[in-house]
Amino acid sequence: MTSLSKEITADQTARYQQALAADPTAKVLERAVSHQGILATSADYASETDMTPVFSIDLDTGKVANQKQSGRCWMFAALNTMRHHLADLFNLSDFELSQNYTNFWDKFEKANYFYENVLATADQPTSSRKVAFLMATPQQDGGQWDMLCAIIEKYGIVPKSVMPETYNSSKSSELNSTLNLKLRKDAVTLRKLVADKASDADIAAAKDKMLGEVYRLLSFSLGEPVSEFDFEYRDDDKNYHIDKGLTPKSFFDKYVNWDLSDYVSIINAPTDDKPYNHTYTVEMLGNVVNGRQVKHLNVTMKDFKALAIKQLQAGQSVWFGCDVGQSSERQKGIMDTKFYDKDALFNIDFSTTKAERLDYGESMMTHAMVLTGVDLVDGQPTKWKVENSWGEKVGTKGYFVMSDAWMDEYCYQVVVNKQFLPDNLKKTQETEEPTVLAPWDPMGALA
User: Fold this and answer.
1) Which residues contact 285 (CB under 8 A, 6 or more apart)?
2) Which residues form the active site (predicted)?
């Protein structure tokens, strides 16, 4: 076998230099790229013409929200789909549900989930991949649709006016670093208790004390969640309303009234280890212990888009997850595979398949948003309207345009009502025991 341990030789470097010197465009491109950057130099603004924000199906969903300097896109997007429904029912266009309320309980539950995983892996060395995975990020802002459902099923939701944003919810880095400091310290204690063969009662008492401290930390940082409140508002016709003595769960039941079990996660992961038309879950992914399990149904991209279109045609927006940083222009609000042409700029073939990008770490789900429209031409989608949660200063008042080709390559998840599933997929989703994927599988990425 030929050895692969070969150094770069002077002859090789000389050949590379000669090839560059022989290229008459090299110096021009060097000046452009080095002064303007790769993205600006490779941008093809003709893409803007194709991405005009006009759609044959266009839901009116009002003003966009702003997650600010936090990673709660999944939570904002999910609550946005619910507020769209609420706004239609109660004539409330400029209304938001409290992202801070669900954020509090998510972080509290994630702490307990982390402690349970620490105890479950306490017999493994800290060098094991699972323990290292746990300690790398004990908790974070990100999450999955099923995880928010688990929070709502246990704690309900409230209007934003009842539990507004705080410094730490809008700018979460200080809270996350402080909470993770505590969780790692607690992991040391819990693992030592197990190593010392402490009783179950002693371990439970230690964990109870830790959770009490987490509750105090979160209450100081985010405010303590309300247990009962009055909902006072004026609708779009300026009519006054007040609803007294609500709880977070009764508010959800009255004002949203969704059966969350009807809404299921559909993914497109074309990798060899995930055959289509089967279900998957991810080890150590979740927040509420004994709560709703993360469960994905993997389908072809054709089925993936057809399900999203059916829900939009029915007048309901669609939560979706994607790799937002790929071929995306934030300020203009355009996501299009043609927007940047790095291949032509560098004369290098950068192309990989969607499966290869997942398998080799080039792409995974990084952001969740909401589909609120689609442009169908001869029955086929050409572009999609996207409600983001980055405020109104980007895109078209916060709304983005996504090309259909971009969806093919960089969208990984939609959440749809299972009524839109064909009978065979509905049966699979409801009855099949999901295959358990490794904790670091890309389908476990948090938006």
Assistant:
1) 144, 294, 439, 444
2) 73, 367, 388
- Residue 373 pairs in a beta bridge with 58, 385
Contact 415, 260 (CB under 8 A): no
Q: Alpha-carbon distance 308 to 446, whole Å?
A: 21
How far, in Å, CA of 140 to CA of 143, rounded? 8
The answer to whether 55 touches 374, Cβ cutoff 8 Å, is yes
Q: Are strands 263-267 and 411-417 parallel, antiparallel or unpaired?
A: antiparallel
Per-residue model confidence as pLDDT tens digits over 155-169: 999 999 999 999 999
Contact 415, 319 (CB under 8 A): yes
Task: Give pTM, 2 decimals.
Answer: 0.96
User: Active site includes 239?
Assistant: no
Catalytic residue among 66, 180, 298, 367: 367
Q: What is the pLDDT of residue 5?
A: 83
Q: Is 73 a catalytic residue?
A: yes
Helices 173-195, 129-136: inter-axial angle, 10-degree rounding: 140
Nearest to 162, CA basis, from 71, 227, 75: 227
Q: From CA 17, how far away is CA 6, in angstroms rounded?
A: 20
For residue 410, CA distances in Å to 71, 75, 307, 351 come to 19, 20, 17, 13
**pLDDT value of position 3:** 62
| Contact indicator for 326, 352 with CB cutoff of 8 Å | no
Beta-bridge mates of residue 435: 280
User: Cα–chain-centroid distance for residue 329?
Assistant: 19
Number of other CB atoms surrounding residue 31 within 10 Å: 11
Helix 145-155 vs helix 99-120: crossing angle, to nearest 10 = 100
Neighbours of 192 (CB within 10 A): 12
* 362, 325 contact by CB (below 8 A): no
The catalytically annotated residue of 66, 168, 180, 388 is 388
CATH superfamily of 57-444: Cysteine proteinases (3.90.70.10)
Query: In 3D, which of 372, 363, 375, 374 has the Cα closest to residue 411?
Result: 363
Q: What is the pLDDT of residue 146?
A: 98
Q: What distance in Å separates the CA atoms of residue 446 and residue 68, rounded to the nearest whole number?
A: 17
Identify the active-site residue in 66, 73, 100, 296.
73
Distance (Å, whole) CA 222 – CA 66 = 17
Residues of the chain with pLDDT under 50: none
Are 301 and 268 a contacting pair, CB within 8 Å? Answer: yes
Q: Report the pLDDT value the prediction gives residue 1, as an integer from 0 to 100.
A: 53
For residue 320, what are the β-bridge partners?
Answer: 369, 414
